[in-house]
Amino acid sequence: MPESLPLTVVVLTKNEAGRIRDCLDSVPFADEILVVDDESSDDTVAIARNQSPRVRVVHRKMDLEGRHRNWAAAQARNDWILSIDADERVTPELAEELQTLFRGTPEKAVYAIPRRNYIGRRWLKHGGWYPSAQVKLYKRSAFRWEETTVHCRAISDQPSGALTGDILHYSYRDIGDFIGKLNRQTTLETRKWLTDGRKMSFGKGMQRTIDRFFRAYVGKKGRKDGWIGFVAAVLGGLYQFVSYAKYWEATQRTETVPAGDAVSRPAAEPPGRRRPTLAVVMMVKNEAARLAHCLEQVQGWADEIVIVDDESSDDSVAIAKRFTPKVFVHPSRDNHDQQWNIGSDRAESEWILHIDADEIVTPALRDAIDEALRTNDGRVRAYDLIRLNFFLGHPMRRGGWRHRHRILFRRKNARCVGQGIHVRLQVDGEVAPLEAEIEHHPFQSFAQFIDRQNHYSNVEAAVLFREKGRLPWQVVRGQMVFKPIHRFWKSFIKQGGFREGRIGFLFAGLTAFFHHALWAKYWEIAENHDAVS
């Protein structure tokens, strides 16, 4: 056991059961270890308390990061603080350096410590990621954190120094985790801009996006880290892009059109012209806020309603049962093809219209479906409807967002054959276009868009590797580097996204990025697979 040093290690936690043990094991030299927990719902607190008799746990809900850190330091029994996070580890070299420092009297009041930042198991040595020194060791009486939401500055009027031993920072479990944290941090960044009254123009936002990428990849030699260096540089630019997008979103006064406004209840069909029976099938997960309004548009028009619930934790099942007895709970495990097939198998009607809770069947669409099914001579087995996407209350008629969507099909002649998020419906027979729109209201904010696309690309990358195996690097590089540029050009220029204005540009950019993210995640999976084989 190393000698006990007169300092308190302060560790901020929230649901860190998987990482807190290794973090605490790396600081056995501390006189006190103070774990400040932010309402964890997992075993973080229990693990911390059982790890060492030197561990003391206190509780506080995070508000402003800087204020939270200042409060945590005030609870310590020692004036000297070593501040680390649950995803950080003190290396043996740093521990030895701290032992040497405290055998005497530290000459400085504040010390910066270099960090090795990791994405998964990959250490980012370039691109500004290392040494990436941060203030971690300080004398509480001579120091405070700026009380702001994110990226709080260290404030002290005392002399500062630097240590040479590293902290290992396992900042991101993988690329998906990186994007998830980026999504949360950019929301805080935008809130900080608005609180401070900072103005951000479109030109400045894009200039910062481009500058961040080239500064990391070229200026700071991120290219030396190989493909992960390129991905990290792209993500650095994305941080600026998304921060601007959320700032623009917050400063707009777009009147959000509630889904299905002015939609009347279905009228009875003329006698003698009954169409074939039709089931509305829905796949649902935690859609209590939107489900009833969606189902009201098809109740009394569809011959039956079938709901397949993906183990919702809200009131979705109870709401669904108000409209239909055919409610089935089945975990999807991100296999949407399976869920579609389960819904089709539970239906009894001849035809199926498969919709989501964020889609609205308007009166015009109902009339178009009724007419198509009544006049169908039996040759057409499925119809491609037009899906009109609404973003932030704005109907996106250009940029590729108004597109064909195969969701109306004859039950006995169609089957889903994929295993992922994007359903692959195989139809035995003729497919015809139906010139009618279904309204789709998928995203209420940029944050929601990023969160959902991050999840989808996680799933699709795993499916891609499972189906394709390891593709040549040249193929993956083309998909990561050149294809996103083509996707942006196609959406914004060729398909007229520029006519949607600022929102067309921002969504074209984010869509291009998530194509890059899909293939970066695919390559990450392939590399990890090779490493353990």
Can you characterise this structure?
The protein contains 14 helices and 24 strands. The protein has helices at 20-25, 44-51, 65-74, 92-103, 175-196, 202-219, 227-251, 291-296, 316-321, 336-346, 363-375, 446-468, 473-494, 502-532; strands at residues 5-13, 30-37, 55-59, 80-85, 88-90, 110-113, 115-119, 122-123, 134-139, 144-145, 154-155, 160-162, 167-172, 278-284, 304-309, 327-329, 351-355, 359-360, 380-391, 394-395, 402-410, 414-416, 425-427, 430-443. The strands form five sheets. Strands 14, 15, 16, 17, 18, 19, 20, 21 and 24 form a nine-stranded mixed beta sheet that branches. Strands 3-2-1-4-9-6-12 form a seven-stranded mixed beta sheet, with helices on both faces. A four-stranded mixed beta sheet has the order 5-13-7-8. β19 (380-391) and β20 form a beta hairpin. The protein is elongated. The two termini are 37 Å apart.
Brief overview:
With 533 residues, this protein is α/β, with parallel strands linked by helices. The protein contains 14 helices and 24 strands.
